[in-house]
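Appendix B, record 7
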Amino acid sequence: MQSRSCATVTNWIAATTLGLLFSISAPQVRAQETVRIAVGVDPVFTPWWIAEEKGFYKKYGVKAEITQFSGGPALADATMAGEADIGSSGTATWMPRIVRGSMVVLGTMATSPDAFKMAARSGIKSLSDLQGKKVGTVGASSTDYLWVLVAKKLNVPESAFDVIPMTPPELVPSLDRGDIQAYFVWEPWASRAVEVSGKDKVHILANSGDVGYFLNFIVVANKKFAEANPEATARVLAALREAIAFQNSNPAEAARIGAEKNKLKPEMASYIINLYQYSLGIAPNTEAAAKTEETWMRSKERLKGDPIDWSKTIDRSYLDRAAAMR
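Structure tokens (predicted):
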């Protein structure tokens, strides 16, 4: 009887030890948290899709619900309203939402000196030819500011151009009909105008770098969401970091994913992705460039209230928390 009892105790100890060893060596499974991510119809957003397809969200315990919007203003409005939790776009797009104090800048995911292109009618040979003409812009986006920089470059008043706001899909047929003579926009909408109208009718006249604009493509969260869910917010950034690394190392696969999600040919998706330099962090000139745009927007009464405190609006604590996650 004593022998059987000892054997039972020995077996129990062995089983318990194995169980403890297994629990220590087994990978920790994170509970999934749902995060709503807003993206646009543009391959610049490809890392968000890579994180989904390659399982990086799942790795960090995130259940991503990705919604595609027509452009930056629409996705920014959704994030501000709490219909989405995190989104990304150019700084000028976010400014009217940030000034209300309901947003927090998490970091920069991409930069570019020539992400925006100007499509123009073939009769327009130079920027100066646009004076007195109707031109297109995506209202309340960074493209508005680009026309200011065109005026500055030509040393003419901003009123030298009759700037007409519209959505990206409207720009292409408007230029084709001649309702406008040119427009500044992000790709693929500039190249699409050439495809639709033909090279004899429309051409690419300039890019954003030609007028002195450097794009910071920032990641922004609804402030209430981020403060209530700091861990989930950091997990999203950790997944995005790995997706960017994957994209930089696997350009062909990234182009395939970007093309599928935006209904483009892989060649066009690759071209657009390569307009940007991707790296998750805080770009050195982000705050200075944002302040310059803010000053202009206030001069046009597009922003009201106290100046934005960028030292508080840009909160790198989420990036720091993400950096510790592997």
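Remarks on this record: Residues 2-25 form the longest helix (24 residues). The chain has 15 helices and eleven strands.
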